[in-house]
Amino acid sequence: EKGTYPYYMLKEIDEQPAVMRRLVQEYRQADGEIHIDSALVSELAASDRVYIVACGTSSHAGWAAKRFFEELTQIPVEIHLSSEFGYNLPLISKKPFFIYLSQSGETADSRQVLVKTNELDYPALTITNVAGSTLSREADHTLLLYAGPEIAVASTKAYTAQIAVMALLATAVGRTKGLAKATNFPVFQELGIVASAMESIISEKSHFSDLTAEYLTATRNAFYIGRGNDYYVSMEAALKLKEISYIQAEGFAAGELKHGTIALIEEGTPVIGIITDEVTGSHTRGNLKEVESRGAKTLVIASEALAKVGDQILLPQVHPYLTSLLAVLPTQLLAYYATLQRGYDVDKPRNLAKSVTVE
Ligand code: F6R
Predict the structure, then answer these.
(1) Distance CA 66, CA 77 (A)
(2) Where are the beta strands (DSSP E) in 74-163?
(3) 4 alpha carbon to ligand 1 midpoint, in Å?
(4) Cβ of 212 below 6 Å from ligand 1
(5) Ligand 1 mutation pick, 13, 112, 155, max ligand atoms within 8 A of CB
(6) Which secondary-structure segment (H or E) carries 273?
(7) Average model confidence (pLDDT) for the chain?
(8) CB atoms closer than 10 angstroms to residue 237
(9) If you measure from the C-alpha of residue 140 to the centroid of ligand 1, how many angstroms do you get, rounded to a whole number?
(10) Separation CA 328–CA 344 (nearest Å)
(11) Catalytic member of 116, 181, 348, 354
(12) What residue's CA is closest to ligand 1, atom 11?
């Protein structure tokens, strides 16, 4: 039930802090350790490469998890789109482990790959919001997202829940391997900090509706840019904006803009920079200056520690592994308000279904 909310999407955005806390509850054992089946953890720990297979927003969650997963487990991670992977299996490592990310657990493109990897006897885990779903039943292992039903077509809380579950899993695997980075990463505490930080963003809704009126509502196109994790969030931010507001939006690696796409920047084109990484933040700022001098209207989403005077959206500090969980929130709200102001149905965008059960 959406209760007093005008749309499910807004309700689901608001639920994200509670989902983070529920994940802590569900995955924390009495002794403070991570409650994930030890057979799954040791099988993953013994693998030489992780293949994440997913579509759309779930594939973006895979990207958001790639770096911390590699750091915490010391296992290389590849992200693949199901619809590409299904037809042309790439060269697979000696001891692969497959992770299927799927909110619904019913996505046909992903299932098609799972059938194939099962035939090849590769171990597989499905991370899904729906217990008993097809992908859950057909994989060796399942981890649940505990996000509650997601009704709005545009996925929000499933994306953040997927990243959080990947963080729990990576920490468990790294600890099993005796890796200091994982042993020293207080994952439950850090997810609690994320939950509180999410609340502080959500409490400033009117700010976001003012920003969309100024930057997005009347535009034909828009760009999100960032580097590293901020680039991966940019891809999701752009998908969210285009799928419900119908503004043509692209997420770009900030440094790639000048290799072609900058030709699209005109007087007034909105370019939104995401800056949470201290190594690359100043470079992304440089790219924002480049587009500004060609007429772009720039908007900055920055971590407090990296913020500069004039930045429009500030993110409370969270652990560097988990910045995507926070950076995506303003972009969900911008997509929501831009759509509302353009007069479209936020929950039911044209041409889209909640779960895509055809290939
Ligand atoms: C976008 C969106 C889709 C889904 C994709 C995969 O907001 O919801 O891109 O993420 O269709 O769906 P699942 O996760 O159910 O496999």
Answers:
(1) 6
(2) 77-81, 96-102, 124-128, 141-144
(3) 26
(4) no
(5) 155
(6) strand 270-275
(7) 96
(8) 29
(9) 22
(10) 22
(11) 354
(12) 56
Say how many Å lie between the CA of residue 311 and the centre of ligand 1: 31
Residue with tokens 């042309």: 88
Interface predicted TM-score of the whole assembly (ipTM), two decimals = 0.98
Report pLDDT digits (tens) over 199-229: 999 999 989 999 999 999 999 999 999 999 9
Q: For residue 85, what are its two tokens?
A: 């992977």
φ, ψ for residue 116, nearest 5 deg: -65, -45
Q: Which helix or strand (DSSP H or E) is residue 249 part of?
A: strand 248-253
Q: What whole-number distance in Å separates Cα of residue 231 and Cα of residue 283? A: 12
Ligand 1 atom at minimal distance to the Cα of residue 107: 16
Structure-token match 């831009």, residue found: 338
Threshold 0.90, pTM exceeds: yes
Cβ atoms 124, 117 nearer than 8 A: yes
Instruction: Indicate if ligand 1 lies below 6 Å from the C-beta of 133.
Output: no
C-beta 58 within 6 A of ligand 1: yes
111-143 pLDDT tens trace:
999 999 999 999 999 999 999 999 999 999 999
Cβ 107 under 6 angstroms from ligand 1: yes
- 354 is a catalytic site residue: yes
Nearest to 284 by CA among 239, 227, 243, 209: 227
Which amino acid type is present at position 241? L
Instruction: Record the tokens describing residue 338, joined without a space.
Output: 């831009």
DSSP string computed for 63-92: HHHHHHHHHHH---EEEEEHHHHTTS----
- Positive or negative, the CA dihedral 152, 335, 80, 169 is negative
Tell me phi and psi for residue 83, to 5 degrees.
-70, -20
